[in-house]
Amino acid sequence: MIVAFSVSPLGVGEDVGEYVADAVRVVRESGLPNRTDAMFTSIEGEWDEVMDVVKRAVAAVEARAGRVSLVLKADIRPGVTNGLTSKVETVERYLSEG
């Protein structure tokens, strides 16, 4: 499965990069395939391991901010691996053909 999520502290002002970095650090240290862009961090793995990482990433932000917002989108597709890369490669292939 692939989960794209965004975790943000609330009530700490506009500069939230330091808080978000705490969450991304948890994801990167998990060892699971992941990507971070300007809006979301995506992580790939089995349900329990991915959701555990999301929970720990939220907890990392919550430890410094009393209120946290979480947005999560999941692609649950058993048996598929390397989706983070293969989905993008498919789109790029179609773009190069056009």
From TrEMBL:
Database matches in InterPro entries: MTH1187/YkoF-like (IPR029756), Thiamine_BP (IPR002767), UPF0045_domain (IPR051614)
What highest taxon heads this organism's lineage? Answer: Bacteria
Residues in domain Thiamine-binding protein? 3-92
Q: Name the Pfam families on file.
A: Thiamine_BP
The Swiss-Prot or TrEMBL record describes its family as follows: Belongs to the UPF0045 family.
NCBIfam families for this protein: MTH1187 family thiamine-binding protein
List the protein's name: UPF0045 protein
